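Lab manual, section 2.4: Encoding a predicted structure.

Procedure: take the sequence of the chain (272 residues), apply the prediction step described in section 2.3, and record the output as structure tokens. A sample record is shown.
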Amino acid sequence: MRQWKDTYFCKMEKSLSFKNIKISYTDSGKGPVVVLLHGFLENKRMWKEIVPKVSNTNRVLAIDLLGHGQTDCLGYVHSMELMADEVLAVLKLLRIRKITIIGHSMGGYVSLALADKRPEMIRGLCLLNSTSLSDDTVRKKLRERANKMVQSNFTNMVRMSFVNLFGKENKAAFTFEIENALNDALKTSLQGYMACQEGMRIRPNRMAVLKNYSFKKLYILGKKDPVLSVEEALEEAKEIQAESVILSGGHMSHIENTHELLIALQKFVKQC
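Recorded output:
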């Protein structure tokens, strides 16, 4: 089954040129458009359990963000705004005017940057294990430190960063899935790692984007997320009057709570 899904995903793969680099994405299904954006150290294949189901009712685009998957790096700071422009380049090529956008972690930050630039395009925005808030001082310092350490010990840094995204008990329960995802993470280039860390470090608070526009909003959170405060995210959702769904796992809901996540996403997409 896993091999079939990988083959299915590969057949959908396409690319375009953006600022003289290659952007890789998949395009499948028909209907209202859903855009899927992966997180840091991930790629479009993280959605392989989601795409075949959602594409039964919708046209689904899954895009490799700068420095990840099959998409090249572009300079040494991959800001959320630059990656939003990358996504907009795909949408322009395909002549797409309206989207529902779903972003995991860093992909959520990019989704917000895109909504800030082009709010009229957005039918709905889902933050999956993500937030509209900027990094606090502690998190900014951690990103700076990570970018220094990763230059001399890339493999160990990526391995440590990645495994710590899962709830403790799920590290044992999803050994196979974690190893596969980790192998993908280790294919990220050093430049891609550092450029995205810096882009996330400097990103602004975008809660106003969610407050000021009337498109549909949803937060999907992991109860045991070790890197995102569920309590703070719920307060955030309450303040902007967004719906929220809490799943039982950690930061990697697409692995830890695949079935429940799919149900929540299908419901959200249908409402948009």
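Check your result against the sample. The domain at 2-271 is CATH 3.40.50.1820 (Rossmann fold).
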